[in-house]
Amino acid sequence: MKSKMPVLASVVALSMMALTACGGSGTKESTTPAGTAAPAATASTAKDTITALLPPVSPNYQKNFEQMSKDFTALYPNLTLKIEPASWEDVKQKLDTQVNAGSPPDIAFGGSDSIPKYIEQGLLMDITGTATPDMVNDFDKAPLEYMKNGKGLYGFPAYMEVHALGGNKEFLEKAGIDWKKVQTNGWTYDEFRQAIKKGVVTENGKTRYGFVFAVKGVAAVDYLGIMAKNAGMPHAFNKDLKYAYTSKNYLGLLKDLRALIDDGSMPKELSSVDAGKRWNMFLTAQTMITGKGLATFENSAKANNAKIKAADGSAVKDSVPVDYIVLPAPTFQGAKPSAATVVDGYMAFRGKKEPTAEHKANVVKAAYFLASGKVAATTNNDLFAAHITQSGKKEAANMKIDRNPDNVAAVENMLKNATPARSDIPSDLSAKAIKIETEVIVPKFQGLIAGEVTPEAMYEAVKTAAIAAFGADGIVKD
């Protein structure tokens, strides 16, 4: 998740304590948060503690931990929800350390794309037979699919966010860009390339770029992955389970992305731009368009605008008022739009010892509590994220939120073209693809951005690694 919510990474950095899974027993009927009776076979009145490792999912999320725990115990008097806070910087490392030690928390917040890895390690808990129909049916189908692998369900989704781009309305209009048309109809790579060229302006000896994307460190793969989905490669594997990044489209994409730097539309020093610097450049009028742009960035921009108006010294230094506009990523080589979405959620874990049926049911209750109703509505409103549960939508109806309606419509348009989940990809293939991404794609792409590696050289390196991992017949040849 660190790479998915970079702006929120600096919101909270709290210390953590070691976590251990706890067990329970008993058989008396209980009630789910949706207000329906849970099956007696998985209910319990015995005391039990459920542990959860949670990062700052939204700007105010961790401030609500105490109330969340109280509300959970009010709903289930025999249960305690023990929440351990973590920062984005250390949550993944902490979780991996505990998983490797065989004692993970009962629940951990993270990206659905990490599910195959934890399945391979044998400590994710399949909740298919424990989650009640009322729980499952509360969720929109598309995001719930992301929490599955094969026939198993390994947790509940918190939100389905679109990885879009974000533009400065004033600068877009000065460049003659019809941003409302782009929000509705999208744009091709050639249209996007010409648009960001128009956004390059030099004023008072300073350059404002047309486009800046955070690419330092692991953020590099975000940039490439988002664009690859719109270049005919929505996943690392095609429907025949052939590794997709050996396609000619991949080479074409690498050439196209490098061209944006060579055009002067992006800074030559792009390889040094991390998430914080990218956002700072956007707020200080150093770029017209930024990426990756999440819905919550509109909220962050408005908060900074208010500080500027109030002459608040905590506003970003040298920042200007920004009217944040959500924009889709361009499409490449005639491909159809395939909006990059991130589905993060509450994954259910087990220790080396098989949990009791009662404890497993209690973990599911806690995961559902966090992913639905008031908790979900409050968190998603804080993120400006779409609500994905019926219970969350009901709670959110009474909550005020200040969003640009054009941006709301733009996100809804992109969600119509959201990249579908692929629960059919075997976990071992996914694990190999992640290894190639980590060991080959990220460093080579960083070299490409820095001008040290050519598109052709990177493509050949990826192809060589793919053949070694999947065999000559396990890759796309076109």
- The number of distinct structural domains comes to 2
For CATH, the homologous superfamily of the largest domain is named as Periplasmic binding protein-like II
Content-based structural category:
alpha/beta
Task: Trace the largest sheet across and list its strands.
Answer: 2-1-3-12-6
- Relative strand content: 5-15%
Biggest sheet descriptor: 5 strands, mixed
Helix content: 40-55%
**How many individual β-strands?**
12
User: What's the tally of helices?
Assistant: 18
In short:
The protein is an alpha/beta fold and 478 residues long. It has helices at residues 65-75, 88-100, 115-120, 133-138, 141-145, 169-174, 179-185, 189-198, 219-229, 248-262, 275-283, 296-309, 357-371, 373-383, 390-396, 405-416, 427-449, 455-470, and strands at residues 48-54, 79-85, 107-111, 148-149, 152-153, 155-162, 164-168, 201-203, 206-213, 287-293, 324-327, 341-348. It is built from 18 helices and 12 strands.
Question: Care to describe what's here?
Answer:
The protein is α/β, with parallel strands linked by helices. 41% of the residues lie in helices and 14% in strands. It contains 18 helices and twelve strands. Helix 10 runs antiparallel to helix 18, helix 14 (373-383) packs across helix 15 (390-396) and helix 17 (427-449) runs antiparallel to helix 18. The longest helix has 23 residues, at 427-449. The radius of gyration is 23 Å and the shape is globular.
